[in-house]
């Protein structure tokens, strides 16, 4: 699903994320910094602030998948004030994520308190573009990393900054903006622990084609999740009414940062496991990240096609005694793969789905696979005779699925 030049088409849009390597003193790759990028050839960030940070988080965790971007390596993510003080949520666990306090953040008591709380939750804190005399020194005792620019900085000034940081036990120093061999040599002489810069590797922009969720459904879901008497069945209904949102929730639930060790067989499972609070955090960031810009809305007829298949699989599963939520999820993922034009195995390669669901989506194998095979055959008018023993029942189920999907699209 990574793509460099695939043309934009209705039904999906392209997202991007920058990734710059960080090396240790042996030259080994030990971490990546994730950066906002608006297009595949962007040399830098065209947007900053909470919206850009939200898009990086959403794209990393619920679209690409953090394990796909960084593997087992550390991941540095820039945070703005809104995230540091808790005005916007961090919907993931600490894990291997390092939170960078941007140099543009004004340090006050509220920021200090927020950063300390994040550190107490297990997050490693990094101070970005650290300089003396701008109040960021107040965070040195809670930080795990300090990033210091090398290129263009007077050698004695850099020595002074390093000396101040070395007074804090356990603090690791990251030499950034390394642009020449001389920069790297000097950074090594000063005893830096980690190294980052164009000399070692420029940010690489990764692109991914994905569905665009409906903002209306985001809003409806946030509203529903804000209610203390939330009906989880209604939450599931809203999520499953939008294929893109369903896929994002599945990806987020399967993200390595969520810390799940069990297999997920349906959207309902994902929602139950995540819980309403974490789900609300994710949906809030998804809505905010979409403010940065998209390539267009998913056409209603294509959305309806996916939902119709998912609903038809669900209806066909019931008389067979199969779990209807699994059948819906199989039909949904099958439809998303068709819309994106990718192999089902590629689409779900980083989803920890239960084996029966995975087999059904990839190979249409097993009882659930038979259901999706029947649904797809009926859609195309190529239903084999042995499958066509109850044409009236199939026709009724299909018309019911079409009616359901259209009602869903027009009601949310």
From TrEMBL:
Magnesium found in the keyword field: no
Keywords, ordered alphabetically: Kinase, Transferase
Domain HDOD: 211-397
Domain EAL: 1-217
Keyword Nucleotide-binding: no
InterPro entries cross-referenced by the UniProt entry: dGMP_Pdiesterase_EAL/HD-GYP, EAL_dom, EAL_sf, HDOD, RNase_Y/CdgJ
GO MF assignments: kinase activity
Alphabetized Pfam families for the sequence: EAL (PF00563), HDOD (PF08668)
Protein name: Histidine kinase
């Amino acid at each position: 699903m990574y793509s460099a030049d695939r043309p934009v088409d209705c039904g999906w849009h392209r997202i991007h994320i920058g990734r710059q390597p960080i090396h240790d003193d042996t030259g080994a790759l030990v971490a990546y910094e994730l950066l906002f990028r608006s297009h595949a050839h962007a040399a830098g960030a065209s947007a900053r602030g909470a919206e850009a940070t939200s898009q990086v988080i959403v794209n990393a965790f619920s679209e690409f998948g953090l394990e796909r971007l960084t593997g087992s390596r550390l991941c540095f993510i820039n945070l703005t004030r809104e995230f540091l003080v808790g005005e916007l949520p961090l919907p993931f666990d600490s894990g291997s994520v390092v939170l960078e306090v941007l140099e543009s953040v004004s340090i006050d008591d509220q920021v200090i308190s927020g950063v300390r709380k994040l550190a107490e939750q297990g997050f490693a804190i990094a101070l970005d573009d650290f300089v003396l005399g701008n109040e960021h020194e107040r965070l040195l005792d809670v930080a795990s990393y300090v990033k210091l620019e090398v290129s263009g900085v007077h050698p004695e000034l850099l020595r002074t900054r390093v000396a101040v940081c070395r007074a804090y036990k356990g603090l690791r120093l990251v030499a950034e903006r390394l642009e020449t061999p001389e920069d790297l040599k000097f950074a090594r002489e000063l005893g830096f622990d980690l190294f980052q810069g164009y000399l070692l590797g420029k940010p690489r922009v990764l692109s991914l084609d994905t569905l665009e969720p409906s903002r209306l459904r985001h809003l409806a879901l946030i509203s529903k999740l804000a209610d203390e008497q939330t009906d989880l069945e209604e939450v599931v209904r809203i999520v499953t009414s939008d294929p893109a949102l369903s896929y994002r929730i599945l990806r987020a639930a399967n993200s390595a940062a969520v810390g799940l060790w069990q297999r997920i067989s349906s959207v309902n499972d994902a929602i139950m496991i995540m819980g309403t609070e974490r789900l609300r955090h994710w949906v809030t960031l998804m809505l905010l990240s979409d403010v940065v810009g998209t390539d267009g809305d998913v056409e209603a007829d294509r959305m309806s096609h996916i939902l119709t298949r998912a609903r038809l699989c669900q209806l066909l599963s019931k008389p067979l005694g199969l779990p209807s939520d699994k059948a819906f999820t199989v039909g949904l993922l099958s439809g998303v793969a068709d819309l994106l034009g990718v192999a089902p195995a590629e689409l779900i390669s980083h989803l920890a789905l239960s084996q029966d669901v995975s087999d059904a989506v990839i190979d249409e194998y097993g009882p659930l696979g038979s259901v999706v095979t029947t649904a797809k055959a009926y859609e195309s008018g190529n239903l084999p005779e042995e499958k066509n023993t109850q044409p009236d029942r199939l026709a009724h189920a299909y018309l019911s699925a079409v009616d359901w999907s259209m009602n869903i699209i027009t009601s949310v």
